[in-house]
Each structure stands twice: as C-alpha cells, then as structure tokens.
Amino acid sequence: VFIKRLTIQGFKSFGPRKISIALEKGLMVITGPNGGGKSNVMDAIRFALGELSAHNLRVGRMAELIHDNPGTNYARVSITLDNSERVLPINSPEVTVARRIDRNGESTYFLNGRQVSRNELLTVLSMANIKPSGFNIVPQGSVIEIAEMGGSELRKMIEDIS
Amino acid sequence: VFIKRLTIQGFKSFGPRKISIALEKGLMVITGPNGGGKSNVMDAIRFALGELSAHNLRVGRMAELIHDNPGTNYARVSITLDNSERVLPINSPEVTVARRIDRNGESTYFLNGRQVSRNELLTVLSMANIKPSGFNIVPQGSVIEIAEMGGSELRKMIEDIS
Amino acid sequence: KKRVFLETFDKVAEAFEIFFNRLTGGQGWLRLENPNDPFSGGVEMVLRFPGKSARSVRAASGGEKSVAAVALLLALQGLTPADFYIFDEIDAHMDLQYSRRLAELFKEMAEKTQIIVISLKDIMAEKADQLIGVYNRGGESRIVKLKLEEVIKAG
Amino acid sequence: KKRVFLETFDKVAEAFEIFFNRLTGGQGWLRLENPNDPFSGGVEMVLRFPGKSARSVRAASGGEKSVAAVALLLALQGLTPADFYIFDEIDAHMDLQYSRRLAELFKEMAEKTQIIVISLKDIMAEKADQLIGVYNRGGESRIVKLKLEEVIKAG
Ligand SMILES: Nc1ncnc2c1ncn2[C@@H]1O[C@H](COP(=O)(O)OP(=O)(O)OP(=O)(O)O)[C@@H](O)[C@H]1O
Ligand SMILES: Nc1ncnc2c1ncn2[C@@H]1O[C@H](COP(=O)(O)OP(=O)(O)OP(=O)(O)O)[C@@H](O)[C@H]1O
Ligand SMILES: [Mg+2]
Ligand SMILES: [Mg+2]
C-alpha cells in the first residue's frame, strides 16, 4: 500500500492554491534549499494519516498548521493510496484519505470523498499497518538523537517495541 | 597571536610517529572522511592549550587521550604561536607551548622547551586572551544546541558573558 | 516478558550487524550489559570500523555515530515492515563514501517498497527514480519535477 | 548588574542583525521578553527570511535554525575578539547557498585573523587559503596537504 498521489492545500508553507504530485513505487528523492518546504511535505503526509501531536508536526498548536497568510482559512491534505491488493478493507483499487483543519483547530476526515470519523479512518489504515508515527517515518534530527542514546535508553527503546 | 605549527604525537587517533603541520594566517580548511581524525586535530589544539575537561575532549578519562595502540605510552602535542608583536610576555618571535600526558593521567607542560607548571602556562597564554574553551572554539554539534535553545537559555548565555 | 524482550533483541541485533556491515564494511554488535538480567543493564553498541579496533559507539566520530544510528534504525524497521518509508535528512553528517553506500542501499530497498528520502546530497539525488525540488517563492512552497542535470547545474 | 547585561545584550543584538543579514539577506532580531525586567523573561529570536514573514526561530526549518545559530555565535564572538578561530562542521545542515555565503564570510574574516574550519562541503574547501585532508590509514590518522583538484576528483 504505497502513496500514489499527494495533494496539499494551505498546509504550513504551502499556499491556498492546490499543489498535487504523483508518486511511484521506488526511490523518490526530495531536495531543495533550506526553508523550501521539504520537511513540511513529510508533515503533510503525517497530518493526513491522522497525527494528533502538534509537537510531531513541529507547531505549537494544531491551528498553526494553516498557511499563515490571512486569506487562508483551512489546510487540507489528501493522500491517494494504492489498494490494488485490497489490503485496505475498501473495494477500490485506490483509496484516498483526506484531512482538513480549520482555524478553530477542528479536523474533518474523508475516505474516498465521504466524511468519516477519525476512528474509522485509523481503523481502515491500521489494516495496512499504516500510522502517522512509526519507525518507517524518520524526522529530521532523529538520527542524531539515536546516536547520542545511552545504554539504558537503547534498552528501553527495544523494550518498547518488543 | 596565531598558530604557526601544530605537532601531534600519540594523541587519540594519531600514532606514535610525530606528525607536524605548518599553518598560516588566513583560511585553513580541514576536510576528509568520517572518522579520519579532523575533530581530533581540534581536540589536540585544546589539549595543548590546557583543557582539563575530559568531556570537552570527548573521552571518559584523560588517559584515554593516548593512542590506544599498546606500544604507545604517552601523547604529546605542541603548538608554535606567532609572537612577532610580543603580545605574549616572552622575548621570542615564536612561542612553543607543549603538553604531554602519560598512562597514569599526569600532564607535563612546556614553554619554549622548558618545563613549567600548568598555572604558569595559562598565565602566559591569558596575556593573549588564549584559552582552551571560548566562543572562538566551536565544537561539532554545538550549532545545533544553540539553535534548539529556549528563550531563557538564550538569556542565561548572554548573562554569563556580560 | 524477558523472553519476548530477548527474542526482539536477538532479531534487532542480527539485523544491526547486517546493516552496519552493509553501510560501512566494518563490524558492529549490540550487546546486553547483563545477559542474565537484561533489564538491570543497558544495551551496548560496539563498532569495529575497517582498519580500526573495536570501540564503543561513544568513542566514535560524529559521522561514525550517525551511520551506526542509521544501521540501528534500519534494524528496528525490520521488525515491522512497512509499504513506504520517509527519511528526512538522515545523511546530514555523512561523508561522500557513506552517503553513496546509503543511496545504493536505498536504491536496492526501493525495488520492493516505496522510499521517500529528503536529502541535500547530490549522490542521493543521482540515485533517484523520481526527483522533486521544493522551494519557496513569494512566501509559498512550490514543487517541481527535477531532472538530474538541473540539480548538478544549480549545485 | 542589569546595566551590564543590557550593555552586553545591545552589543550582541546589533552584531546579530548584521551577521544574520550578511548570511541570509533577511532580517533577524533579538528581543527581550521583558525589557523592563530582563531577568524575569527570556531572549526571543525573530527571523524574517527573504520573501517570508517574520517568525520566531522556533518556526524555522532545520537549516534556517542552524544559520541563525551561526549568526548568533559570530555575534557572541564579537564581544571578545580572538586571534584564531576553530569551527568544527558548523555547515552540516546548510544548503549550497548558505554554505557559499558562510565560506565567503570566512574568507573575508580570514584577512585579519586565522580561521580554521573543519568542513565536508566542497564550496568551503574551494575558498581555502590552505587545505588539508585528515584520514585514517592502518588505524592511524594521517594529514596531507591538498590541492583543490584532488578534492573535487575524490568527490
Ligand atoms: N503555517 C505556516 N505558514 C507559512 N509558513 C510556514 C508555516 N509553518 C511553517 N512555515 C515555514 O515553512 C518553512 C520551513 O519549511 P521546512 O521545515 O519544510 O523546510 P525544509 O525544506 O525542510 O528546510 P531544511 O532543509 O532547512 O530542513 C519555514 O520557513 C517556516 O517558517
Ligand atoms: N585514543 C584513541 N586511540 C585511537 N583512536 C582513537 C582514540 N580516540 C579516538 N579515536 C578514534 O578517532 C576517530 C574519530 O576521529 P574524529 O572524531 O577526529 O573524526 P572526524 O574526522 O572528525 O570525523 P567526522 O567527520 O565523522 O566528524 C574515531 O574512529 C575514534 O575511534
Ligand atoms: Mg527540513
Ligand atoms: Mg568530527
């Protein structure tokens, strides 16, 4: 279940005009200058997958995820997942998950265009073992933290996943 | 008062065979592969200038500064400083400071070849405002620490130097 | 609980040895401080880089620590395989050699799974199946598809 | 004590503005949270990168934070000038643009003082008056004088 398309609108450094990219299986490399928005792309993916921690999305409050241009009132990110093997319990070859957040900090979730509760979305994604945090998502600076871990922290980390 | 020559022997990744480099005023860039010994060159300079903190030299105990080949029994670093303006209170156009540490962890200090106490060495260097730690010596990773400082840590840092 | 921990530990330790060797050509091991009572001690990481003697990770250089951390991360990922991976600048402290080995490893892993890598290294961009640039124009982020010649030219 | 702090703060704040603009082309300020009672609050860092609105350093990207930290470091160094400086990989998170501006700044500073920089960036090596390579052979570090063509060829 890989990501086929990512659509970002009004999320962090992305303006209100929709931006959409198609992705393939294989190695995708994202480059560009400091402050360009590369890590924000990763934040957008985690946001759409249901991330609840403002800290993990590098903001103080969730409402700060909205592009700080006064004209922008919401942020919306949608991810189209490949479902050709029907790992997700939805009968379509592609499944689109979307999330929108408004200035009041409230989030709305969508599955193939239909509004759903966050719980329903997470349940569907969990069938493919997909969650917004996990060892498969490695934020900037986390390698240095692992490198600096002491012996007992290392043991605790392995304890937590066993 | 700049560094004209650096001689390293048995210090950290440097073997017992003396290595000596001449330096000029201007921009010197040190490059090379990970683990090559670049940061150890900086440690060698701080060591010779009187660094007492094993932590600042990235070892557990000072005796670990000695090249870990069993045949090596001491580490020695000497720095030749330009003294053409006689900023240092020594009547020679160049002043060489050297420090040797033995397996028992004891350090011996030399000024132009004559053995001196650590205090005498530090007093001489302080005339040129030279010390092993200070804002002019920026270790690997310290920029990230500064970048992550909160508002009160920033204020404390400025307090400490005012 | 001890048995579950030890099973997990063994899997991670074995994967760590493989990934560390793959990335560095050297040997790396995870060791329990107290094998009989794991929870009373920590986990040590011992590294033997090519041409050097075995040392604790604490004694390694900045870049050496970082490549060992990547090997550990990949070993931990092996416990619960995922269909896509996102890595944000994990090669920041790596020299050209390690960056190249990491890029080659990702290229290989990407035959089976989707790997999204954020990186400033040209060698990683060269290995990409798909390469995009994210930059700021007029206060807004833009995304462009890149051809490698453009990256090298701008670089 | 408050007067001494404020005098120091003003000097650092002024130098920070100059260095930040020099390195980024943008504007950066240090502000006291409580100007009337400095010790009851912290020091805020506000950054306005070119083309963007002013934001706290907390909201900046990894590389933006790092270039702001370098500007602060240089501002603090200005309080007690030294005859030599040693910088160990302060450009690790910088892209090509910032790395180039830092290298040009160091080149200029090095006209008056000795600057020793450890860096893995080619652009820094290109600006060097003196370039040396430190590498490991047979468990021992060696030092060689380098010519730039050799670095580019190896790279
Ligand atoms: N809500 C928002 N509105 C507008 N801009 C924002 C918002 N949130 C974050 N930004 C901006 O996004 C930029 C950072 O983006 P990001 O962290 O993705 O950069 P990056 O490309 O990863 O850079 P680096 O290479 O330095 O890590 C910052 O300049 C930040 O101020
Ligand atoms: N006493 C010692 N005897 C032998 N080798 C040592 C000793 N102390 C440290 N080393 C080795 O020196 C190497 C690290 O050197 P250093 O930190 O200078 O690397 P570096 O060139 O700065 O690398 P990086 O680019 O990764 O920061 C390590 O491999 C370490 O094991
Ligand atoms: Mg980033
Ligand atoms: Mg180093």
Q: What would you say this structure looks like, in words?
A:
The complex is a heterotetramer, with 2 copies of chain A (162 residues) and 2 copies of chain C (155 residues). Chain A is α+β, with helices and mostly antiparallel strands. Chain A has 4 helices and 8 strands, in the order βββαββββαβαα. Chain A has helices at residues 38-48, 118-126, 142-147, 151-161; strands at 3-9, 19-22, 27-31, 74-82, 94-102, 107-111, 114-116, 137-138. Chain A has a 6-stranded antiparallel sheet. The longest helix of chain A is centred in the N-terminal third of the chain and has 11 residues, at 38-48. Chain C is elongated and about 60 Å long. Chain C has helices at 2-24, 62-77, 96-109, 122-126, 148-154; strands at 27-32, 43-48, 55-56, 84-88, 114-118, 130-137, 140-145. Chain C has 155 residues and is an alpha+beta fold. In chain C, helix 3 links the parallel strand 4 and strand 5 (114-118). In chain C, helix 1 crosses helix 2. Helix content of chain C is 42%, strand content 25%. In chain C, strands 1-2-3 form a 3-stranded antiparallel sheet. Chain C contains 5 helices and 7 strands, in the order αβββαβαβαββα. Classes of the chains: A alpha+beta (162), C alpha+beta (155). Chains in contact: A-C, A-D, B-C, B-D, C-D. The interface between A and C is large, with 60 and 70 residues. The complex binds adenosine-5'-triphosphate (2 copies) and magnesium ion (2 copies).
